[in-house]
Amino acid sequence: MTKPGETSRIRYDEGCLGAHALNLIGDRWALLVVRELMFAPKRFQMLRAGMPGITASVLNGRLAQLRDAGVVLHDERLGIYSLTDAGRGLLPVLEALCRWALTVPGHDPSRFISPSALMISMGVNLMRDRARGRAALAGFDFGREAFEMRLTSGRLSTTAVARPDAPFVLTGSGNAMAAAVYGTAPLPLLIAKGFIGVEGDVSAAQAFVDLFRVCPYKGDSAF
Question: Residue 205 in contact with residue 187, Cβ under 8 Å?
Fold first, then answer.
């Protein structure tokens, strides 16, 4: 693996396109850095907050690699990192990894889930047959990050916002929100227990989260 502070290098000396991609984004944490930048530019410390297991030196190294690979841009004046068009083009790759992960055992949803990770997973786990022909606008407020998710004709689009302006806004941590979206407990019960909050139309919020379901490996319950 490339060491922190080193730039990208050829690790797989092959003409395979997959090997070429892995030479650019295959190091540990690289795709998770892309995940955290998928919806909005971020400063270094906010990036670290979305990946609590990464050290500052490793994150610096990955950012340098991704910058050299043309995946990440760094505005040194503002101290902000963002994705290039090539970086944003990795969203289908992240979604495909999520779909593949549903087919193998070992997923532990009690571990840390970042807001960006949840937003991407919801795009994967939308029940499209149930969502077909429906329209909705949902807000998600995680404290340091907030999003609006729009459902139109069975398709989702997610946008990072400063403050959601939607008929309902769910509030809580990434893990709490994941349990609210994918779990079986009704929202009023989760609200009563202080697990999550909902501002606005609770019934509309319930109808929206009912459009999502995780189909885990061999029927094991994911939440």
Answer: yes
**Tokens 């806004």, residue located:** 169
Domain boundaries of the chain, sorted by first residue: 17-89, 106-219
pLDDT tens per residue across span 66-91: 999 999 999 999 999 999 999 999 99
Fold of 17-89: Arc Repressor Mutant, subunit A (1.10.10)
pLDDT band at 221 (very low <50, low <70, confident <90, very high): very low
pLDDT tier at 175, thresholds 50, 70, 90:
very high
Give the Å distances, CA to CA, from 203 to 168, 187, 198, 211: 9, 9, 10, 13
Sequence letter at residue 32: L
What is the amino acid identity at position 168?
A: F
- The span from the CA of 10 to the CA of 31, in Å, is 17
Q: What is the phi/psi pair of residue 209, to 5°?
A: -65, -20
Q: Is 3.40.30.10 the CATH number for 106-219?
A: no
| Residue pLDDT, tens place only, 24-53 | 999 999 999 999 999 999 999 999 999 999
Nearest partner of 218 among 103, 100, 107, judged by Cα: 103
Cβ contact 187:198 at 8 Å: yes
Sequence-distant (6+) residues with CB within 8 A of 205 are: 138, 168, 170, 187, 198
The angle at the Cα of 114, spanning 108 to 118, to the nearest 5 degrees, equals 75
